[in-house]
Structure formats: C-alpha cells, structure tokens
Amino acid sequence: MKSKSTNPVLLGLIEELKKKAHAEDAPIWRSLAKSLMGSSSGKAQVNISRIARYTEKGDVVAVPGKVLGAGTIAYPVTVAAFNFSKQAREKILSAGGRCISLRDLMSEFPKGSNVEIIE
Predict the structure, then answer these.
(1) How do strand 78-84 and strand 44-47 relate by DSSP bridges?
(2) What is the arithmetic mean of pLDDT over 85-108?
(3) Does 40 score more than 80 pLDDT?
(4) Which of 119, 117, 110, 67 lies closest to 97 in space, CA to CA?
(5) Containing H/E element for 45?
(6) What count of other Cβ atoms lies within 10 Å of the Cβ of residue 29?
(7) CA distance 62 to 39
(8) Are the C-beta atoms of 111 and 24 separated by less than 8 Å?
(9) What is the mean pLDDT of residues 23-27?
(10) Which of 7, 71, 81, 104 could form a disulfide with 100 if both were Cys (CB 3.0 to 4.6 A apart)?
(11) How is the chain split into domains, by residue range?
C-alpha cells in the first residue's frame, strides 16, 4: 500500500517503521506504519480522555496520529505520537508522564514489547 502523504518527515518515518518491523520481527511497527499511510483526514486523533480510559500508571502507548488535549489524566504514562497539541503535552507532562516521538519509541522499545497502540 502506498502512502497518500506528501510530507517527507512522515514518509521517512513510515519507511523507518517498516524497516524496524522487518529487522526486529516486530509486527507493531508494521501496524503503525500502515495506520500512518492513510490520508491526513483519516489519521488518528486521540484525546487525553481516551488514553486515560485505556491505560494504567506506567503504560506505554503509541498513537499513529495526533494527541489532543480534551480530558484529564492523573497518572504518568509514556505516550509516543506523530504530533501532540500543546494542551495534550502539558497535561501528560503535568501528570508525570512523557511525550516522545515514534522514532524515540522505536529506539527505546525495539521489539515493541509492552507497547499498546491507541487509535
């Protein structure tokens, strides 16, 4: 499947995810790449409230799109995404969590173990 994006940063990330999936035999990276290949209007937009609903303290999640600031979270989680709104970043950090790039997530968790995808 060919990406509908013309964003060179996104296209590079998709290629890196595919290579990492193959090199580490980790299907999670292939799944994230596939999710990122769609049109921009079809990309995930996940609110803080959804992250709070489906996570527990210390969880690590990947969002193949943008994290938005609606809702609250009261405990630390590590969230990796293509993009974060300013408000979402502030809420995650103020709860003691981390906001990282999907590239950083691949470096920290090469096999994708204990990483959940939220769309």
Answers:
(1) unpaired
(2) 97
(3) no
(4) 67
(5) strand 44-47
(6) 27
(7) 19
(8) yes
(9) 95
(10) 104
(11) 8-117
Q: Given 3.100.10.10, 3.40.50.620, 2.40.30.60, 1.10.630.10, which CATH number is that of 8-117?
A: 3.100.10.10
pTM above 0.85?
A: yes
CA 71-69-84 angle, to 5 degrees, is 145
Distance CA 73, CA 111 (A): 27
Structure tokens at 92: 């995650």
Rounded to 5 degrees, φ, ψ at 79 are: -120, 125
Of the candidates 70, 81, 72, the one whose C-alpha atom is nearest the C-alpha of residue 118 is 81
Other C-beta atoms lying within 10 Å of the C-beta of residue 72: 11
Q: pLDDT value at position 4? A: 63
